[in-house]
Design a protein that fits this description.
Number of strands: 9
Distance between the termini: 22 Å
Strand order of the largest sheet: 1-2-3
Radius of gyration: 16 Å
Order of helices and strands: EHEEHEHEHEHHEEEHH
CATH class: Alpha Beta
Strand content: 15-25%
Bound molecules: pyridoxal-5'-phosphate
Structural class: alpha/beta
Largest sheet: 3 strands, mixed
CATH topology: UDP-N-acetylmuramoyl-L-alanine:D-glutamate ligase
């Protein structure tokens, strides 16, 4: 996966490593940016040099079969360009993209160049993007989720898993829209509260399912159950949002 470092251990690359490992896969962690962050918010971020990431990706691909790629915070547009070049040379790997733009506390994790590079270059190569409600409205240029999804699909996204975790109501509704088929909905009981790193955890868990050979739909179903269980035993790490306990023993 390609993700940023959240030193509070709640989101980013640590969330990915824990989720992917818990679901029985071996993660290859490529760090895209370093953040200044606690469980309440992000206060700064610096991207890793894109040339170094290029060398890491090629080095890994020469050595290790890669069965899925998950992307999270990407640092800057140059990192997206390196990833896109890599994906164009290594076709056929399912890419699950969590389009990270802001931390839950409101801190920025992407500038306009990065958002534009994700939309125009990365989304068309991804098997699925997993925006929450805020990301969907921003990326799809509409507060109406159906219109926002239409814009994204028309712009070249193959499928959009619109997540409802940041909304309200007793049940979370996640909906998978794709160019090829009618939307599919999942309803999950809402535990209540806000948790740090749930979007990262969900996308990483989906990528683990895909790497293990599950269909996209089965991988989503497994990932939702995993995230819900991790939230049910969330840890009060700091003064802000609790962190899902991704180390839970997992049996599907
Ligand atoms: N990646 C990094 C490095 C982060 O610091 C954060 C957020 O706070 C995220 C991703 C976004 O996390 P999520 O999508 O789980 O809210």
């Amino acid at each position: 996966m390609l993700s940023g470092l959240d030193p509070s251990g709640g989101a980013g690359i640590q969330a990915d490593i824990q989720a992917i490992t818990s679901l029985g896969c071996h993660p290859l962690p490529v760090l895209t940016c370093l953040t200044v962050q606690d469980t309440r918010n992000v206060y700064g971020a610096e991207a890793v040099d894109a040339g170094l990431i290029r060398r890491q990706l090629e080095c890994l691909a020469d050595d290790t079969p890669i069965h899925a790629i998950k992307t999270g915070a990407l640092g800057n547009a140059a990192v997206v360009e390196v990833l896109v070049e890599f994906l164009n040379r290594h076709r056929g790997i399912p890419v699950i993209t969590d389009p990270v733009i802001k931390a839950a506390g409101g801190g920025d994790l992407a500038d306009d160049h990065l958002i534009d590079a994700m939309k125009t270059q990365l989304f068309p190569l991804a098997e699925m993007i997993t925006p929450n409600g805020v990301e969907l409205a921003l990326l799809g240029n509409s507060d109406d989720p159906d219109i926002a999804v239409d814009h994204l699909l028309a712009g070249g996204c193959r499928s959009v898993l619109a997540t409802g975790g940041h909304g309200t109501g007793d049940r979370i509704i996640n909906t998978l829209y794709s160019q090829a088929s009618t939307p599919q909905h999942w309803e999950i009981e809402r535990v209540g509260g806000e948790y740090h790193g749930t979007g990262c955890t969900l996308a990483a868990a989906i990528s683990a399912g895909r790497a293990a050979g599950l269909s996209a739909r089965a991988a989503i179903a497994q990932a939702q159950n995993y995230v819900q269980r991790a939230i049910l035993s969330a840890l009060e790490v700091g003064k802000g949002q609790p962190v899902p306990d991704r180390g839970i023993a997992w049996r599907s």
